[in-house]
Amino acid sequence: MYNSKLKDDFTDKLFEAILLLESEEECYQFFEDICTVSELKSIAQRLEVAKMLAEENTYTDIASETGASTATISRVKRCLNYGADGYKLILEKLKKENKK
């Protein structure tokens, strides 16, 4: 069982709901309702920043391509280095998926 500061019944139910989504279209429907456009764009931007950091792009290149601030890039880098390994987990899964 994963131990996290985020863990509670509401978060468990949210993640259970997300795991029930079966297509990209269903994801768009759900996340459009549950998040603001800004929240969703920020999450998507952070994932792209993580990908670019893992590929060893410079802060300048990342900021230019994603529009992320250096503060956001630093925060994502800190998570990559000292976080719960969530970015690493999903980046590996995405890499494997793209090789298919």
What's the gist of this structure?
The chain has 100 residues and is mostly helical. The chain is built from six helices and no strands.
Helix-strand string: HHHHHH
The low-confidence runs, each spanning 5 or more residues with pLDDT under 50, are none
Question: How many separate domains?
Answer: 1
Multimeric status of the protein: single chain
Query: What CATH architecture do you see?
Result: Orthogonal Bundle
By CATH, the superfamily comes out as: TrpR-like
Number of strands: 0
- Number of contiguous helices: 6
Within the CATH hierarchy, at the fold level, what is the topology? Answer: Trp Operon Repressor, Chain A
Percent strand equals: under 5%
Q: Could you report the average pLDDT, rounded to the nearest whole number?
A: 95
Structural class: mainly alpha
* Main CATH class: Mainly Alpha
Helical content stands at over 70%
Descriptive notes:
This protein has about 100 residues and is mostly helical. It has one domain: TrpR-like (Trp Operon Repressor, Chain A, Orthogonal Bundle), CATH 1.10.1270.10. Helix content is about 75%, strand content about 0%. The chain contains six helices and no strands. The protein has helices at about 10-20, 25-35, 35-55, 60-65, 70-80, 85-100. α3 runs antiparallel to α4 (about 60-65) and α3 packs across α5 (about 70-80). The longest helix has 18 residues, at about 35-55.
